[in-house]
Specification:
Strand 7 and strand 8 form a beta hairpin. This protein has 219 residues and is α+β, with helices and mostly antiparallel strands. The strands form four sheets. Strands 2-3-1-6 form a four-stranded antiparallel β-sheet. Among the domains are: 79 residues, Alpha-Beta Plaits; 68 residues, Alpha-Beta Plaits (2-Layer Sandwich). Helix content is 22%, strand content 31%. InterPro entries: Nucleotide-bd_a/b_plait_sf, RBD_domain_sf, RRM_dom. GO terms for molecular function: RNA binding. This is RRM domain-containing protein.
Length: 219
């Protein structure tokens, strides 16, 4: 008999969980989610009531489609919340489904022999499949805002676009046939300097940051 593997197992296989600490007492799991999503695709965030030995609050953030874990951790360590700066590291824990509790609404997470209860509603059942996806690098930064509309005008209204970093985007199609038609479209190709088959090993060369400066005269 074959071994049954749930969608949760598939998500765990492709996800990366990060341990984060050094944030205010008023910080919520939602705040943690939105702070970290600037640097990756966050699918889960959780802050337990238990504290570290030093009395600090801590939490876990789960990412998918992480191409460079070391870079992700370094980026998270640049986040400031008030006067506090995040401390982040790769989490080391095992997650096991509770059986026989009758409620069916919690998951057991073990971290350094400490049991933490995580609501199931925070799970995202998302399985990475790049067979119907392309990675494209737009020619100009301004193209990122108009890309979806431009591609819809070319008849590709069912595709999903995700930002990968720098000028790169992930384009996910319903079928490989649509993907091939997209790649062969001359008008579509005019928006990209590169259009490649999507790969989980991809890592962008750089990162774009928006800096807003106030009080500088025009001249």
């Amino acid at each position: 008999m074959g071994t049954f593997r749930s969608k949760e197992d598939d998500v765990s296989r492709i996800s990366t969980s990060i341990f984060v600490t050094n944030f205010p007492d008023s910080f919520s799991a939602k705040d943690l989610f939105h702070s970290c999503k600037l640097y990756g695709h966050v699918v889960d965030s959780f802050i337990p009531t238990k504290r570290t030995k030093e009395g600090k609050r801590f939490g876990f953030v789960r990412f998918i489609n992480v191409f460079n874990v070391e870079r992700l951790v370094k980026n998270l360590c640049t986040i400031w919340v008030g006067r506090l700066k995040f401390h982040a590291n790769v989490a080391r824990f095992n997650r096991e489904n509770l059986k026989g509790n009758g409620s069916g609404d919690k998951t057991e997470k073990t971290y350094n022999k400490t049991t933490i209860m995580v609501p199931i509603r925070l799970r995202i059942m998302w399985v990475l499949d790049l067979s119907c996806s392309l990675m494209g690098r737009v020619k100009e930064l301004a193209s990122l805002d108009n890309l979806k509309k431009a591609l819809v005008n070319e008849g590709f209204d069912a595709l999903k676009i995700s930002y990968l970093g720098e000028l790169w985007v992930l384009l996910k199609f319903e079928t490989t046939m649509v993907k091939d038609l997209f790649r062969a479209n001359v008008s579509v190709n005019s928006w990209f300097s590169a259009l490649n088959q999507a790969s989980a090993d991809f890592a962008p060369d750089g990162r774009i940051a928006w800096v807003e400066v106030e009080g500088i005269p025009f001249k």
